[in-house]
Amino acid sequence: MKIAVITIVISFLLIAGLFNLYWSLGGKSFKKLSKVFLDLEIDSYLRQIHFFAFLTFIAFVIIILFTVGIIPYNGDLYLFKSGSIGIGFTFIARAFGDKNKFGIFKKIKDTEEAKLDSIFVTPFCFVFGILIFSLVFLF
Question: Which residues of the chain have pLDDT under 50?
Answer without folding.
Answer: none
